[in-house]
Design goal:
236 residues; alpha+beta; six-stranded antiparallel β-sheet; four-stranded antiparallel β-sheet
């Protein structure tokens, strides 16, 4: 066996397994200081506060097969004694963590509104602002959290997941914006810290600074589309 380390290497980490799932698996053994999801390899690296905590976890899971969401995962000491910046950057695309996420939605068979996005992203922290728009890459949204760690956890947990069964797949990057400017509270944009914003200013498309072609759905389209989605369960 590899020399004991406070860094634990986890294999067979499927895309359905979130960062929170792994935290729950190891938190009973001590404080977890770092967690890196290596999605491309179906692996994760998790750093405990100290070596004895990691030893206790691995001794326990030597006798008990760890499973997450019905999938067996396999744990061993990492060859790393400490997670460095290099390993942590491997978690994503090398982009700098930010409290604002740029979300692209693929295979969009159902309309996605501010309310749906808020329901998906708010479990990971307080969402301050959401702006949706249509660009050449498809339907996109900017999600601004109050705190950067919330955005980091949300990206790790939700990247590659489907909002609805078999469709509306989330592709999440960190935005390079510092602050979202929201002028209107409607189905395309929302400032959850300022409920007094108007719904629309007549004659001007909302959030034109982010959008190439204005909003994706005309006002009132939501009422037509949502009866179709009403019985569809959000998966994430």
């Amino acid at each position: 066996m590899t020399e004991p380390s406070k860094v634990i290497h986890v294999r067979n980490v499927g895309h359905e397994i979130s960062e929170n799932d792994l935290l729950q698996l190891f938190q009973p053994f001590g404080v977890i200081t770092k967690l890196v999801m290596l999605r491309a390899k179906n692996q994760a690296l998790l750093q405990m506060q100290d070596v004895p905590s990691a030893i206790n976890a691995l001794q326990f899971y030597t006798n008990v097969q760890p499973t997450i969401r019905g999938r067996n995962v396999y744990v061993q000491f990492s060859s790393h004694q400490e997670l460095t910046t290099m390993e942590q950057n491997a978690q994503g695309r090398g982009d700098e963590p930010n409290r604002i996420l740029l979300v692209t939605i693929h295979h969009m068979l159902y309309p996605i509104t501010v309310e749906v996005l808020h329901q998906v992203f708010s479990p990971h922290g307080f969402v301050e602002k959401i702006v949706t728009f249509q660009k050449s890459a498809g339907f996109q949204a900017l999600i601004q959290y109050q705190l950067r760690p919330s955005a980091v956890v949300a990206r790790s947990s939700l990247q590659g997941r489907n909002i609805y069964d078999g469709c509306c797949q989330l592709d999440i990057q960190f935005s390079n914006l510092d602050e979202l400017q929201v002028n209107y509270n409607n189905e395309r944009s929302r400032d959850f810290t300022n409920p007094n914003l108007p719904a629309e200013q007549k004659g001007r498309p909302s959030q034109s600074g982010y959008s190439e072609a204005g909003g994706m759905y005309a006002p009132g389209a939501r009422a037509v589309a949502f009866p179709q989605v009403g019985s569809t369960q959000i998966m994430v």
